[in-house]
Structure to design on (70 residues):
């Protein structure tokens, strides 16, 4: 089962998806631009862990916007 949620970072919406089977967290969209960035795979044990990890990644995005399109 996959669960999606979004995190707002300085007005940009980052949409994450958590796949319970693969225990993976993926970025699926940044500010409306489709993405497929695997952030973590195999070690996230719950949706709460995925949300917490996503918030940490989103905070890092503020200082290092490495997910911008090239």
């Amino acid at each position: 089962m996959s669960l999606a949620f979004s995190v707002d970072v300085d007005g940009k919406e980052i949409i994450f998806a958590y796949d319970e089977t693969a225990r993976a967290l993926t970025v699926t969209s940044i500010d409306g631009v489709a993405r497929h960035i695997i952030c973590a795979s195999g070690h996230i044990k719950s949706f709460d862990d995925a949300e917490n990890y996503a918030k940490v990644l989103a905070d890092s995005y503020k200082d290092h916007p490495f997910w911008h399109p090239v």
Observations:
- The mean pLDDT is 82.
